Amino acid sequence: QVQLVESGGDLVQPGGSLRLSCAASGNIFSISAMGWYRQAPGKQLALVAVITRGGTASYIDSVKGRFTISRDNAKNMLYLQMNSLSPEDTAVYYCDTAPHRSYWGQGTHVTVSS
Predict the structure, then answer these.
(1) Alpha-carbon gap, residue 66 to 113, rounded angstroms
(2) Maximum separation of any 2 CA atoms in the chain, in Å
């Protein structure tokens, strides 16, 4: 069974940056598109960034130009570089297969607050 472990979440001030990481116990990155999801307090889960097996990335409008998704298939790692963070980015962030989740990791908490 594949396990996904997200890390890198933290408390950061508005305008700050964070880099999230996702480690997979199995080799799924080379066989599946991957994504970063987030669930803000009181809101539904949202898919915010996707990267295909070939490396093509796509984003929801609210994070375009600020977030960058990347993958290292050899290391079974997925990343999300987040810049110019705002309080609206506060959420629990999850990595998983996209466009539908398969493995349901525990997530990592990102709080943007002054």
Answers:
(1) 17
(2) 40
Residue 57 token pair? 């990335």
CA-based Rg of the chain, rounded to a whole angstrom?
13
Return the pLDDT at 30: 73
Question: What's the confidence (pLDDT) of residue 52?
Answer: 94
| SS3 (DSSP) at 65 | coil
DSSP state of 99: S
36 and 108 in contact (C-beta within 8 Å)?
A: no
Q: How far is CA 42 from CA 5, 71, 82, 90, 100, in A?
A: 23, 30, 22, 11, 21
Contact between 52 and 34 under an 8 Å Cβ cutoff? The reply is no
Q: What is the mean pLDDT of each run of 10 residues along the chain (114 residues)?
A: 94 98 85 94 96 94 98 91 98 96 94 97
Distance, in Å, from the CA atom of 79 to the CA atom of 57, rounded to the nearest integer, reads: 12
Query: Distance (Å, rounded) from C-alpha 105 to C-alpha 34?
Result: 13
Instruction: List the one residue out of 9, 92, 85, 22 whose CA is nearest residue 51.
Output: 22
